[in-house]
Amino acid sequence: MALNLTDFIVMTVLVGAGCGLSYVGLWSMLRLAGAERQRTTDLQLNALTDEVKALEARVAELSKAPVPAPVVEMVAAPAAAKPAAHRENEEVSPEMLVVMAAAVTAFLGKKVRIRSAKMLQQPREVANSWSQQGRMLVHASHNLRMKG
Predict the structure, then answer these.
(1) Which of 15, 22, 35, 124 sits between 20 and 30 A of 143, alpha carbons compared?
(2) Residue 38 falls within a domain, yes or no?
(3) pLDDT tens, residue by residue, 77-87
């Protein structure tokens, strides 16, 4: 069974037309999917904008509230031990808790409640010079040298 020239031309035209129709169909589907994705993104952006405005209003409302004056107690304690102990047990202000909860709520998309938070120690208070020097040696050992 041999193919003559007209059969070959007809098959070529049919395959080309099929490829062209597939291309046009897929291109239109891609455009529709892109438009739908754009609409979804715009809706999410508008919702986040509204949430940020509500949070800004809430922060402004909280900043207008009277803040009680801090109570200062004088305790006789060694000067070196007081900052570290005070730093470990220091509570975060209620305003900061509201801001953190709002940020997490905006990020996760559902309401969260922060039950407690406290300040962490500064890295300089935790690490001593021997451990810092050891880390520097380990990091320096990973430097790649240029080969000449």
Answers:
(1) 124
(2) yes
(3) 444 444 444 45
Q: Report whether 84 contacts 121 (CB < 8 A).
A: yes
What is the span of the domain harbouring residue 38? Answer: 9-47
Q: Which residue has the higher pLDDT, 6 or 90?
A: 6
Q: What is the total count of domains within the chain?
A: 1
Does 34 reside within a domain? yes
**pTM value surpassing 0.70:** no
Residue 43 lies in a domain: yes
State the Cα–Cα distance between residues 57 and 16, nearest whole angstrom.
61
